[in-house]
Write a structure and sequence with these properties.
Helices cover 33% and strands 30% of the residues. It is of the alpha/beta class. The chain has a 6-stranded mixed β-sheet with strand order 6-7-8-3-9-10, sandwiched between helices. Strand 1 (3-16) and strand 2 (19-32) form a beta hairpin. The longest helix is centred in the C-terminal third of the chain and has 16 residues, at 177-192. The protein starts with a strand and ends in a 7-residue tail after the last strand.
Length: 233
């Protein structure tokens, strides 16, 4: 299978005062195109650090990160921002929507940074809003929508640039059980259409939607296994 992510002996250390704190300790992980992977681990295990590295929000202290055949290990902040906008769609626990924009305006934002024309932005944004089942809410602002609808807008915004990877950080953390299931069904549908999905979660029942589960502990990969019991409800 074609590898979309190759992490080779990745370490990340933070300096806290005069103390060096290792967050990741020489980990190596490959993720193939169109995989659906959950990353799990207790608080302090390194999963947020790993997400930031995979998402090109940070660079490793040591090691090599190959994303889509490009070494992104030592890029500048501006170069990382360009890679993020092109390759990665983010979905966050807190939705991160701009309150003054309606759904259509929020979904278009990555396309503004990508330099698309207004007509191109609107056409593409309408298409992904329809894909997540929110056409009738296109002109509603975040405060006029439920939590589940706001997360669907966030998913549409993540999809709008046709990214290589959808990176979801605790995407159901602020949602009730029924709404969480609806959002996870949406991710399963997006995966079936060919996207690579990396899900960061501390919830076992949410991780079970993924086809592979990587567990971290103390900055190391504790286990990396295929999920034999994929949740499909």
């Amino acid at each position: 299978m074609e590898k979309i992510i190759q992490l080779k002996d990745i370490s990340k250390k933070y300096i806290v005062g005069t103390i060096e704190v290792p967050a990741l300790r020489s980990i190596s992980i490959d993720i193939a195109k169109n995989e659906y992977v959950a990353i799990m681990g207790p608080s302090g295990s390194g999963k947020s650090t790993l997400m930031n590295l995979i998402g090109c929000l940070d660079t490793p202290t040591e090691g090599v990160y190959i994303l889509n055949d490009h070494d992104v290990s030592s890029l500048t902040d501006d170069e990382l921002a360009a890679v993020r906008n092109r390759e990665i769609g983010f979905v966050f626990q807190t939705f991160n929507l701009l309150p003054r924009y309606d759904a259509l305006g929020n979904v278009q934002l990555p396309l503004i940074y990508a330099g698309k024309t207004k007509a191109e932005r609107i056409e593409r944004a309408q298409k992904v809003i329809e894909q997540v089942g929110l056409t009738d809410r296109s002109h509603h602002k975040p405060n006029e929508m439920s939590g589940g609808q706001r997360q669907r807008v966030a998913v549409a915004r993540a999809l709008v640039s046709n990214p290589s990877i959808i990176l979801a950080d605790e995407p159901t953390g602020n949602l009730d059980t029924k709404t969480s299931i609806d959002i996870m069904r949406l991710f399963s549908e997006i995966h079936r259409k060919g996207n690579t999905i990396i899900l960061v979660t501390h919830e076992e029942d949410i991780a079970r939607y993924a086809h592979r589960i990587i567990r971290l502990r103390d900055g190391l990969v504790e286990s990396d296994q295929t999920n034999p019991d994929i949740r499909t409800d």
